[in-house]
Amino acid sequence: LSPGAKMGCFTFIKVMMILFNLAIFLSGGTLLGVGIWVKVDGESFLDIFGTLSSSVLQVVNVSYVLIVIGSILLVIGFLGCYGAQKESKCLLMMFFSVVLIIFIAEVAVAVVALVYTGLAETLLSAVVTPVLKEKYGVDTAFTQIWNTTMTQVHCCGLNNYTDFDDSVWYETHKTYPVQCCDMEQPCTVTLAAQKTPPLAHPRLCGCLLQGCFDQILEEIRTNAGVAGGVAAGIAALEIAAMAVSMYLYCRLDEK
């Protein structure tokens, strides 16, 4: 290519880099703002958008997740946008490094999730079950999230109805949540046990109620193609962002 064509190509890629990372920066700012809003005034957020019904949000603190993701996107967007605009080799290399670290972390998490699903279940159970025993029936928003999830996903607890043993809810009402008995009342231990898959077949589907973790895994397996496509798309964007930042970095040497 002629010097003019090379310069035109460089300028085009630079502008695309700026616009792409500006969009990331604005998205990060939005997520950060929403995360802070949920943290400070979660009740008004639920009043506006309704009870959260996602089958995975009950195992995490939504506000902190939004704040962390928003902050990361803000940093990435700033480094990429400002680095390209100022043609700063230092900022472009920092952008490349941050995206590379995130990419490696995502690959590592995916591998661990595939290989150590049982370990993930154990860790989740160790973290979530005590919170479930303590907050279910006490924290209104937490209880609504669990109730909506268990009703829509057709599941009970994280593992099964025994997650509610010795819980504040059980000690107060002497019954399990109605979702653990397929909406039949009163939800006694005998009825809950009848609705639960036998231990020999803990992932048995059908009319029997599984734990929400098992149901989430089933949904992920059912939609593995969509999830894989989204993951591949994100990975492709990250690789493209790294390639563009490295291209600009190298072209700055030539300039």
UniProtKB/TrEMBL annotation:
Species: Furnarius figulus
Membrane-topology annotation of the record: Multi-pass membrane protein
Listed transmembrane segments: 12-38, 58-79, 91-116, 226-250
Primary location recorded for the protein, binned into one broad class: membrane
GO cellular component, one term: lysosomal membrane
InterPro entries documented for this protein: Tetraspanin/Peripherin, Tetraspanin_animals, Tetraspanin_CS, Tetraspanin_EC2_sf
SUPFAM superfamilies associated with the record: Tetraspanin (SSF48652)
Reported function: Structural component of specialized membrane microdomains known as tetraspanin-enriched microdomains (TERMs), which act as platforms for receptor clustering and signaling. Participates thereby in diverse biological functions such as cell signal transduction, adhesion, migration and protein trafficking. Regulates neuronal differentiation in response to NGF by facilitating NGF-mediated activation of NTRK1/TRKA receptor tyrosine kinase and subsequent downstream signaling pathways. Plays a role in the inhibition of TNFalpha-induced apoptosis.
Keyword terms: Glycoprotein, Lysosome, Membrane, Transmembrane, Transmembrane helix
Gene: Tspan1
Family membership: Belongs to the tetraspanin (TM4SF) family.
Keyword Transmembrane on entry: yes
Subcellular location: Lysosome membrane; Membrane
Entry protein name: Tetraspanin
